[in-house]
Amino acid sequence: MNDKTIDYYFWLNSDWAYLGADRLQGIADKYDVAINYKPVDLPDVYARTGGMLLHQRSPERQAYRVAELKRWCRKLGIHINPHPRYLCPNADLASCMVIAASQSGADITALYKAILRAEWCEDQDISSDITLIDIANKQRLDGQALVNQARTPQILSLYRQYTDEAVGCGIFGSPSYVFQDELFWGQDRLDMLEEAIQRAG
């Protein structure tokens, strides 16, 4: 693996990925580290690693998630709605569209952040073709072409590959970062990821 690369595994429904997105990019820019963006099918990851989807968790765990989100939003100065209108819809198409954009050579940083923002800040349904096309078009990408490409066997195969890779790396949640074979889970571990990059020189 390239010593100057972060493998970034994330779910396109991940509120925590949204909270960490700008800081991750800032770390990569500061140390001239490349990011490999790898959207994953988190429900499949959960099924294979013992995780539970939000609606399956106990009321106590769900309440604590909201409390933690509010704390982190205050700390970071970022607003999200813990209970958006469309909470965690199917993210397969959104994930594959981001992969398709990456394969076409586009800078997908703004695209994936816009998709996350659409769900957590703008009450949009990111499982909708219409929503995703509009988001991509606003990023000056060809939304319809990306949605079409997202449904091709090549892109679907990459999506499955990234999901399998994630499980193989020991990943069980989103966002997760792998640097020099070391796994960091959660945006609250970005400081430790940065320290690992510093140590690597």
TrEMBL record:
GO terms for molecular function: 2-hydroxychromene-2-carboxylate isomerase activity; glutathione peroxidase activity; glutathione transferase activity. The active site is at S14. GO terms for biological process: glutathione metabolic process; naphthalene catabolic process. It catalyses: 2-hydroxychromene-2-carboxylate = (3E)-4-(2-hydroxyphenyl)-2-oxobut-3-enoate. Keywords: Isomerase. PANTHER family: GLUTATHIONE S-TRANSFERASE KAPPA (PTHR42943), GLUTATHIONE S-TRANSFERASE KAPPA-RELATED (PTHR42943:SF13). It holds the Pfam family DSBA. This is 2-hydroxychromene-2-carboxylate isomerase. Its EC number is 5.99.1.4. It comes from the Bacteria. It is an enzyme of class 5 (isomerase). The keyword Isomerase applies. Belongs to the GST superfamily. NadH family. Residues 5-198 form the DSBA-like thioredoxin domain.
